[in-house]
Write a structure and sequence with these properties.
Layout: E1 2-6, H1 9-24, E2 30-34, H2 40-46, E3 52-53, H3 61-82, E4 86-90, H4 93-101, E5 106-109, H5 116-122, E6 128-132, E7 143-146, H6 152-155, H7 164-167, E8 178-183, H8 199-209, E9 214-219, H9 239-245, E10 248-251, H10 254-262, E11 267-270, H11 276-285, E12 288-291, H12 296-309, E13 321-322, H13 324-333, H14 337-345, E14 353-354
Parallel strand pairs: 1-2, 1-4, 2-3, 4-5, 5-6, 6-7, 8-9, 8-10, 10-11, 11-12
Antiparallel strand pairs: 13-14
Helix pairs in contact: 1-13, 3-4, 4-5, 8-12, 10-11
């Protein structure tokens, strides 16, 4: 049995193909552990996956450190009870440290360069670290790069088909133009020292974007009373359909901005640092633009400029991706022999890559 540790809704989407293949596979079995955070348990329940629920997120580094110890002990007990032979995760120090302590291989995926504290926690213990080719850090011999981005691996056209019928659940007229705004709760490790968009700017965004379509807000934080009418109560499995047909996406979520761009929707992300996959999507599609929090006025002006003229974003389709699900099935079908082969090759076999 393999242990798959999920800590973010985007982890679910990234590994969903692998999870489905394991569910149908005669010999590959998964034990899924999942963080108790917004949307993740709902996605697992919707698609019918059994899982072990972990604790919720902690707000401080001290709280996160204490949580790390508790989760490692929980994972050790689960691994021993279920005879886990390998661990897989997206940047999970919990899985990496547990695998190291139990002397089991640990495969870590990562795409976020500024996640420094988490990387310090998992790097010494991971057996192999997989990153997109555009990742701007170098992790030495443990690192294996793959084409595409985390988002393109599960949103490329042959893996995801957007549905207007889903959009109609939220709009009586699915042809009505709409704009998505995303505000996040800055308690992830890489977000702890980030400046959030202030309430006045959130209100200004809504006010100035409204002439171009209906405004929906997806927010991790509680919205002020004046913005509550714009809150989107969306089922998590519907979000990518809504993103695909939106006229524009804007917000603090780098992942969702990248997802929007891969789906062909122009987007702006407001984030302190630009990540490798955002730079790649900007260079190859011009469908995502990056601004620092101090540049939120410029970001809003750029959004209005696009919506007024439909210029400034070329709209080129992003075509690079890696079939992570099929790759992992191939790897574990003949494990550890193929794992040793992978370490020698230092690359994902080309048949799983589309460039």
């Amino acid at each position: 049995m393999l242990l798959l540790d999920l800590n973010h809704p985007s982890d679910f989407h990234f590994f969903h193909g692998f999870m489905e293949k394991c569910r149908r596979h005669p010999s590959l079995k998964l034990l899924i552990t999942a963080r108790n955070r917004q949307y993740l348990p709902e996605l697992l329940d919707h698609y019918g996956f059994a899982y072990v629920l972990k604790k919720g997120r902690k707000r401080t580094l001290t709280g996160k450190a204490m949580n790390l110890i508790g989760e490692i002990f929980q994972m050790i007990r689960l691994a021993r009870k279920n005879k886990i032979r390998a661990f897989v995760s997206f940047a999970s120090p919990y899985a990496a440290i547990t695998g190291f302590l139990l002397r089991k291989p640990t495969l870590i995926f990562d795409d976020t360069e500024n996640n420094t504290f988490v990387q310090l926690a998992y790097r010494p213990f991971a057996s192999q670290i997989f990153t997109p080719s555009c990742f701007q850090k170098h992790f030495g011999k443990k690192q294996v790069r793959f084409p595409g981005t985390k988002e393109s691996s599960h949103l490329e056209p042959d893996k995801f088909t957007p549905s207007k019928a889903v959009v109609q659940k939220y709009l009586e007229n699915p042809e009505e133009p709409y704009i998505l705004l995303r505000f996040v709760e800055h308690i992830a490790t890489h977000d702890l020292y980030q400046k959030a968009i202030q309430t006045k700017m959130k209100q200004k965004m809504v006010r100035e974007l409204q002439p171009f379509g209906r405004v929906f807000i997806v927010s991790e934080t509680k919205l002020p009373e004046a913005l509550m009418p714009y809150a989107l109560d969306c089922e998590p499995q519907d979000m990518h359909h809504l993103m695909a047909y939106a006229n524009f996406f804007m917000g603090e979520s780098t992942t969702m901005a990248a997802e929007a761009a891969v789906l062909g929707t122009p987007s702006i992300v407001i984030e302190e640092k630009s990540l490798g996959y955002i730079k790649e999507l900007n260079e190859k599609t011009d469908l995502v633009q990056w601004y620092k929090p101090a540049q939120d006025e410029e970001a809003l002006a750029a959004a209005i400029g696009y919506l007024e003229s439909r210029k400034g974003f070329s709209g080129t389709q992003y075509s690079e991706s890696t079939d992570i699900g099929s790759f992992l099935v191939w790897l574990f079908e003949d494990f550890p022999e193929r794992f040793e082969e992978l370490k020698r090759l230092q690359k994902v076999p080309e048949r799983f890559c589309c460039v």
